[in-house]
Amino acid sequence: MGKLSRDDVLKLAKLARLDLSPTEIDSYADELSEILQYVEILQTVDVSGLEPTNQVTGLVNVTRPDEIRDYGYGPKDLYDNLPAMENDQLKVKRMIN
Q1: Quick check: 29 and 5 in contact, CB under 8 A?
Q2: Measured between alpha carbons, how far is 4 from 34 in angstroms, rounded to an integer?
Q3: In whole angstroms, what is the distance from residue 5 CA to residue 11 CA?
Q4: What structural domains and CATH numbers belong to the chain?
Q5: Could you tell me which residues come within 8 angstroms of residue 35 by beta carbon, excluding any fewer than 6 positions away?
Q6: Taking a C-beta distance cutoff of 8 angstroms, is the pair 4, 29 a contact?
Q7: What is the pLDDT of residues 31-49, one digit of tens each?
Q8: pLDDT tens digit sequence for 66-89
Q9: Does residue 1 contact residue 36 with C-beta atoms inside 8 Å?
């Protein structure tokens, strides 16, 4: 890829909406060029026999399947514990004046 030019850095800065000083432009040109050179090195590595890895800890999903449990109570049975009901709705004191 080579070294990024000043114009390349200015174009990237515009896309990222960054306002860079002249010294920052030169600094970013050097740093980004080094990063791109490292990526080029990584692209040359032979990974043909490797499987893709999405996590490395060995943990597995331990959730249980969803199942309906009957506890012997329905919603209407639980209404008996409420202080006040009106038209199948919980009645509370007025909150807003």
Answers
A1: yes
A2: 9
A3: 10
A4: 6-43 (1.10.20)
A5: none
A6: yes
A7: 999 999 999 999 999 989 8
A8: 898 888 888 788 888 888 888 878
A9: yes
